[in-house]
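Subgroup meeting minutes
Present: P.N., E.W., G.H.
Scribe: E.W.

1. P.N. recapped why we're keeping a running log of single-chain structure predictions: easier to compare across weeks, and new members can see raw inputs and outputs side by side.
2. G.H. added today's entry (112 aa).
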Amino acid sequence: MMEFRNSEMLRIFLGEQVRLGHRPLYEEVVREARLQGMAGATVLKGVLSFGHDMEIHTSKIMELAEDLPMVVEICDTPQKIDTFLPVLEQMVRDSGGRIMVSREAVRSSIIG
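Output recorded in log:
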């Protein structure tokens, strides 16, 4: 029987063009999550979005496809998420970018 544990899902919404140094911020977030020993991280690329600036970002129109939405999902214990959040905040400050973060309780299990 599959066993589930209490976990949290951290979702970080950011633009593809937000950079930390010479690398995309979403790559640096995943790298840092790995260094911190987080359970896992996945980056998803969106095809359509709008955010605080109310501008539409879409993969359909070539000139609007420059800054597509990216979502980084990190799942781990609430304690590990708590430890990671200040690091994430500093990375965003250092990038000069703007992101949105959501956090929710989930039940997770690893199969195999």
